[in-house]
Amino acid sequence: MKRLFYSLLLLSQMSVCHAATVTLPRAEQFELRAATTDNQPGPRYRILVALPDGPAPAGGYPVVYVLDADLVFHSVVETLRLQSRRPLATGVLPALVVGISYPEEDDVILRRAVDYTPTPAAQPAADMSATMRSAGGGADRFLDFIDKTLRPTIAQRYATNPNHQVLFGHSLGGLFALHALFNRPQSFTHYIAASPSWWWNDKVMATEESAFRRQPDAARGRALLLTVGEFEQSPSRFSDNMPGGIATLTRRAMVDNVRALSGRLITMPGMRVKALELTGENHLSSLPQAINRGLRFALEP
């Protein structure tokens, strides 16, 4: 009986320990509101920031801006901290990570569909939710928030390097990264577009790309990494379980679009372009590799 009592006591103590809150070291969060437009207050954003372990270098920390921070902020931070412990051995510099997310009470699916896209979807399909079909077109306003509100706030609060600024986006976030590159290439030095949703409105993106390529000087000193998973277009044993099945993969042509886009942009003078096709990965399983390879691409010493 005594042994049973102590066993139950130990289990209760373990339960209490497991309920403790886990925090990310050297990280903080705060809220920012976009600028007022048409006498209406701008939307609110939840900003997550993680500092490197060591002091800032003389020129300030490089900064990695991460979209969809509610999903990937912790992954980016821990991947970066692990890789940057020995920069000369790993080829990755320590950097400040800034995640852009939304207040918990907001509809994240709706807000990202608005913020990350230059227009509503060109051809809303059955595999898209009703929310996605009706959203889109806020990319320029969101880019204004980043350029005019968020980046100045980060520069004021932390020691940052204005000449080493990285934007990371996946899926619709990857589409936004390309929109930012084509329209305001000087906003960032490095753009990482992981599995970009070019299909959202390919005619609009093609127009933006053409205008960008007609201004080769705008690309000088910029760097772009494109990533895509093999099974984002090729059939796999999971294809039938996604909305629309293989027909969706074929229609979106994620791999073909990345190949074609990188082939066109790689000829621009003064711009570094790299494309990675990730073997055996799908739209979501490719994300950890995109984070890992993207950090190495953008933060080499």
Which secondary structure elements does this structure contain, and how are they paired or packed?
Layout: H1 2-18, E1 27-33, E2 44-50, E3 61-66, H2 69-83, H3 87-90, E4 96-101, H4 108-115, H5 130-134, H6 139-157, E5 160-170, H7 172-183, E6 190-194, H8 202-213, E7 223-229, H9 245-252, H10 254-265, E8 272-278, H11 287-298
Parallel strand pairs: 3-4, 3-5, 5-6, 6-7, 7-8
Antiparallel strand pairs: 1-2, 2-4
Helix pairs in contact: 2-11, 7-8
> What is the helix/strand order?
HEEEHHEHHHEHEHEHHEH
CATH structural fold name: Rossmann fold
The whole-number mean of residue pLDDT values reads 88
Shape: globular
Terminal-residue CA separation: 63 Å
Estimated radius of gyration: 21 Å
Overall CATH architecture: 3-Layer(aba) Sandwich
- What would you give as the CATH superfamily? Alpha/Beta hydrolase fold, catalytic domain
CATH classification class: Alpha Beta
| Largest pleated sheet | 8 strands, mixed
Number of helices, where a helix is a run of at least 4 consecutive DSSP H or I residues: 11
How many E-type strands? 8
The number of domains is 1
Structural class per helix/strand content?
alpha/beta
Spatial order of strands in the largest sheet: 1-2-4-3-5-6-7-8
Percent range of helical residues: 40-55%
Which runs of at least 5 residues are low in confidence (pLDDT < 50)?
Answer: 4-16
Keywords: Hydrolase, Signal
InterPro entries: AB_hydrolase_fold (IPR029058), Esterase-like (IPR000801), Siderophore_Hydrolase_D (IPR052558)
Family: Belongs to the esterase D family.
Signal peptide: 1-19
